[in-house]
Amino acid sequence: MIEKNNIPNKSEIDALAQLYLDADSAVEQAKETRRIFADQLAEMIAAHGFLPRRATKSRRIEGEEFQATLIRSQSLDVNGTEVLRLRMFLTGTGWGGWFRKLFKREPVYVLREGAQELVARLLAKGAPSDLHVLFSNTLTIRDNSASLKVEPLKDPRQAGAGEKVARKKEAKAS
């Protein structure tokens, strides 16, 4: 800690400033090295990872001491103007009763669980073909950046346990 009563001389200022810049440079180098390792782990997971139990958007690899999980997620935006356009279309074609099974009204429209499957079933039942295009226009799906999580295994003997389960499931499926 710098004492308030001691006025630093120019060489002390320069020395501290240089230490700061050296530390800042080391941080940037460490971030770049970390990014390289993260890219390598992500490639390894993509090529050789397995789907963890109860996961749908994750893949994992396990070593003796660590496991690395790559999680890919998406976000969904509902376009309120397009939702209203779809609602008017469905009402005008006699299919208006199905609208509330697709969306629920909150301060904004929120997509209901299973709505996309319902549209497919309605089209199979003879709903107007414009339903698919209008429904698709109501949604915007964006991929979020993938996140990588590396953590020690709780018990090193668990290494490979997830792979064994995945292999058993694959064997049963074939």
Write the layout of secondary structure elements.
Blueprint: H1 10-48, E1 58-62, E2 66-71, E3 74-78, H2 80-92, H3 99-102, E4 103-105, E5 109-111, H4 115-124, H5 130-137, E6 139-143, E7 147-152, H6 161-173
Helix pairs in contact: 2-5
3D structure, described in words:
The radius of gyration is 27 Å and the shape is elongated. The chain is α+β, with helices and mostly antiparallel strands. The chain is built from six helices and seven strands, in the order αβββααββααββα. The model has no long low-confidence stretch (mean pLDDT 84).
Beta-strand content estimate: 15-25%
Q: Gap between N and C termini, in Å?
A: 67 Å
The helix/strand series, from N terminus to C terminus, equals HEEEHHEEHHEEH
Mean pLDDT: 84
Number of helices: 6
Please tally the β strands and state the result: 7
- Secondary structure category: alpha+beta
Gyration radius, rounded: 27 Å
Gross morphology: elongated
- Largest sheet entry: 3 strands, antiparallel
Residue stretches low in confidence (pLDDT < 50, at least 5 long) are: none
> Approximately how much helix is present in the residues?
40-55%
Order of strands, widest sheet: 1-2-7
